[in-house]
């Protein structure tokens, strides 16, 4: 394992509730996508007063081919990836403490191991289009599905990645206050660190006829109808976070439709979309859920995927 680091002082975050101390990790491989991720991570580290760690996974695996394979040259190339990224970040963000290292493991295992002490992991995404299922990349999807901490995906084409963020933090709220605790915590912490406003979105659908029951309809009737019931659910989920972060402006948004559709139609002016994830194992491996999948491949802004209980 090799290291190249730049150590400088870090400015403290302006918001009193913003977390500090835990490092932000960005996976880099020399691609435009990973450099955009590193730029986003550096700005987030600046907001939070946190150190930044740039990580590149490389392990010598000789190919069973009649080719000349130079282990030393490959290792030097891997070291240059992190050295170059660290130099660029250090020049643009001199107030951020940056370390960079080559991890001797496979990409998925290496990136997941960095999360033991990290606040979040930031990775690159290749963009969006018709073939949505292939655009995040197999490594990225595996990391997001298994991560125990939030993972942020940033596109290379997102010109805002290295610019001062504008717009709201958009967060999807589903289920009970306990169900959405982790995703709302991340959204409010991020908004507090950036001095940004939050738009909390709760999507709902008309229940099928067989789902109606006297008990469920009584709850809706007590709230004044289905829409007031959903508005009350969102308000209750937000209440403890509004109390903890009274200086963060919050807009409540309740809309009929699927969660993925509603979030995507309201994400055009957002600086970050935050969604939850309950990974499920399917026939082809871990799945990240339809809402996270849609957000990662189709949202026009960086997307944070937060693991939930």
Automatic annotation (TrEMBL):
Region annotation (Disordered) maps to 1-22
> Domain UspA spans what residues?
22-155, 169-307
Classification via InterPro entries: Rossmann-like_a/b/a_fold, Universal_stress_UspA, UspA
Pfam families linked: Usp (PF00582)
Q: Which PANTHER family match?
A: STRESS RESPONSE PROTEIN NHAX, UNIVERSAL STRESS PROTEIN UP12
Q: Which family does it belong to?
A: Belongs to the universal stress protein A family.
Protein name per the record: Universal stress protein
Task: Name the species this protein comes from.
Answer: Streptomyces omiyaensis
Give the source lineage, highest ranks first.
Bacteria, Bacillati, Actinomycetota, Actinomycetes, Kitasatosporales
